[in-house]
Amino acid sequence: MTKLESRIRKAKEILGDSLVILGHHYQRDDVIQFADFRGDSLKLARDAANCQDAKYIVFCGVHFMAETADVLSQPDQVVLLPDLEAGCPLAEMANRADVEDAWAQLGEMMDVENEVLPITYVNSSAALKAFCGQHGGSVCTSSNAASVLAWAFERRQRVLFFPDQHLGRNTAKKMGIPLEEMVLWNPSLPLGGNDVEALKRARVFLWRGFCNVHQRFKPEHVTAWRERDPEIRVIVHPECEMAVVDLADEAGSTAYIIRRVEESPPGTRWAIGTEANLVNRLKHEHPEQFVASLSSELSYCRTMNLITLEKLARVLEGLAEGKVVNQVTVPEDVARYARVALERMLEAS
């Protein structure tokens, strides 16, 4: 045991049941070993909400995840992030001002409040979740995006989907919506870079956002594996671009990818298109199978890897001494509407 690991274990012992540590699947192995719960962002926020006896929730993830945990937590619970600089580039590709501007521009050519429903991927700020809550919309995850889109189309004829274009496109396409009825909205351009007729024809407005990790997987990675290993099964995250998803054998959320590997028989061969920490962990936990990254250039989430043992130790030792370091709070007026959007997601799912 290293000195840092010893410091963390000591602080955990002092804090006891007043502490719960959440570890996202993309965390480094040396950090996630201390997690009381592992999972994707929404599962972990729910886990925290169920730990009502814990006063402190330390989220080993990125900023929007800690925000969601705070939105769903009890009023007397405190949410902390070991590094406040651990943001999410995808989540930061859409902000409230730009989304409100897009909403206003669409409102000049259609009745947005009755025709368009805003849907935000859980990888977004609490402010954007609140925007959806205020305008009849919902949150979605990569697991339930299809259910949430179906729910949305039962209520309005169009959807504004942000911030991840690939999840929106792949999900809508799988539901049978033609590509001609989807447009890409570039917030830097008037009308998102589209003409009026294209916008009036569209059923899905896709925000120009993407995940830096999953954007790195390309169709040539799939074809290279197929040529090298005819037995390989390719499974990718739906944040990958459409051409990659179309070539893969399967596409699904982080939880889906883990479940497929866990349930598969010995000897199954996988090339996985998702974050490298998770792929490496699956490789070590399932030696009876062949597990490799879809790309030879391992795709790590840089901001997730900002969470280190040293930063975790500093936050825990502060709590053990009665000092709160790196608290994440969401203003109640924002949290209230964000909760509405999250509750609609649960209804839709």
Topology:
Blueprint: H1 3-15, E1 19-24, H2 29-32, E2 37-39, H3 41-50, E3 56-60, H4 63-72, E4 78-80, H5 96-107, H6 112-115, E5 116-121, H7 126-134, E6 138-140, H8 145-155, E7 158-162, H9 165-174, E8 182-185, H10 196-201, E9 204-207, H11 219-228, E10 233-236, H12 242-247, E11 250-251, H13 254-263, E12 269-273, H14 276-285, E13 290-293, H15 309-320, H16 332-348
Helix pairs in contact: 1-15, 3-4, 4-16, 7-16
Description:
The protein is an alpha/beta fold and 349 residues long. It has 3 domains: 3-87 and 304-330, NadA-like (Rossmann fold, 3-Layer(aba) Sandwich); 91-211, NadA-like (Rossmann fold); 214-293, NadA-like (Rossmann fold, 3-Layer(aba) Sandwich). The chain is 44% helix and 15% strand. It has helices at 3-15, 29-32, 41-50, 63-72, 96-107, 112-115, 126-134, 145-155, 165-174, 196-201, 219-228, 242-247, 254-263, 276-285, 309-320, 332-348, and strands spanning 19-24, 37-39, 56-60, 78-80, 116-121, 138-140, 158-162, 182-185, 204-207, 233-236, 250-251, 269-273, 290-293. It has a 5-stranded parallel beta sheet with strand order 6-5-7-9-8, sandwiched between helices. It has a 4-stranded parallel beta sheet with strand order 2-1-3-4, sandwiched between helices. It starts with a helix and ends with a helix. 48% of the residues are buried. The mean pLDDT is 96.
